[in-house]
Design goal:
Radius of gyration: 19 Å
Structural class: alpha+beta
CATH topology: Glutaredoxin
Helix content: 25-40%
CATH superfamily: Glutaredoxin
CATH class: Alpha Beta
Strand order of the largest sheet: 2-1-5-4-3-7-8
Order of helices and strands: HEEEHEHEHEEEHE
Strand content: 15-25%
CATH architecture: 3-Layer(aba) Sandwich
Oligomer: single chain
Shape: globular
Number of domains: 1
Length: 202
Amino acid sequence: MKQLILSCLAVIVLLSSAPVKDGYEVGDTVADFKLKNVDGKTVSLADWKDAKGFIVVFDCNTCPVSRKYNERIISLNKMYASQGFPLIAINPNSPEVSEGDSYDEMVKYAKKKGYTFPYLYDASQKVVSEFGATNTPHVFVLNKVGNELKVAYIGAIDDSARDASAADNKYVEAAVNALLAGKAVSITKTKAIGCGVKWKNS
């Protein structure tokens, strides 16, 4: 009996010390989701039947870094949506913590900026938790392999939070260009540059 108890305790210790996965890593398969767009419609990745992949950007209205990247985000969609890699922006911030990131403010912001891509509201913060995004902006480039979407790149848009002209490395462009050419992505993960996600008060 004593031996059985010791064995059970050993298993509990092993389980408690096992690393807990925190979001997607490069190579992982992404689960689809359904979120409300600023036009009031529900959007999922499955809506794009012919997509070769996606540029998923966790973004917001209020972060100064997000605002500096705003035009670059718009440009990414213009460059790659027609080539099979549409951009989808998701606001993960809780309006309880950041009032300027409410759904109504998202609608206004998208209209003001002339967004031609979905800007989705992650009200439950389930999707941002599944992805493991920590910042705004935080990018996940997804590549369609068979019927699955695999993470090909995670991190920053480029290496300059100031402006595009100061960027030496345009990580997202390089990743998507490589995938379109049927090549491996050379830089698969970088540190996201931006404000921390505003989580709901527990």
